User: What shape does this take?
Amino acid sequence: MGHEHAHMSPDTKDKRVAVAIWANGILTLAQIAGGIFAGSVALIADAIHNFSDMASLFIAFAARKIARRPADSKMTFGYGRIEVVAALINYTTLIMIGAYLIYEGGMRFIDPPEIKGWWVVWLGIIALVVDGLTALLTYSMQKDSVNIRALFLHNLSDAFASIAVVVGGALILLYDMRWVDPAITIGIASYILYLGLTEIGGTIRTLMLGSPLDIDTDSVIEALSNVEGVLDLHHVHFWQMGEHDASLDAHVVVEISAWNELEKVKGGIKRTLENEFGITHSTLEFEHPDHSHKDAHTYGHG
Assistant: This one.
């Protein structure tokens, strides 16, 4: 699977997302119609979640296309970060939908309606098949893309929701437990909220130009300080243009004895960054000890 994923073309990935969009669109229409007919808020809740999946898939599909555009005079960093923006939109909608469904489920708890259990069961089974298909299509792509990971979590939560809907329909058929429908709705919504709230932080961190989570910034600075010719570092910035592209900007104070060998010092810093920390993009400003910034902070511009 890993070998196949590593060589999967962008067009193949796009086709997988397109298939998932159509499948979720058809399922959403079927579930909404069936939910209204059967009187099941759990089924409608699952339909709304599937609709959010379809919207999320479309946003991700468009973002993937835009992200591959080359840099230009208006977007000198390129368009890669659009996928992070798409993930933020998808996680935000996930949270909003979860909050709404908890409210709707609470209202149905007060006065549980009459529910046609067989409709709930069959549509829930169909939904489970589509959700499983969509999750399968996106699974091999989600490890390397926060955009696709947001989609995968949408669909994984849908699959669990569909199982819950089927179980709820069966309990209604067997025991006329109508309260199960809003209870399942609240359970689905709580899970949706949990996924959205736990995943959105990393996306916001990237958009806020936060340091990469998998890099110990203090260790990087310590390693660079030990490079031959380096006296000190300050005004250091760690950030990510995309989710996999860690970058560093820094002012480097160079020893007087190495001032005439700046290329050698720069080469040592670049090799250390790439070999030890996987940082392949860095912007360095060199300072002579006699003219360096005084009392400068290690991080930021202070």
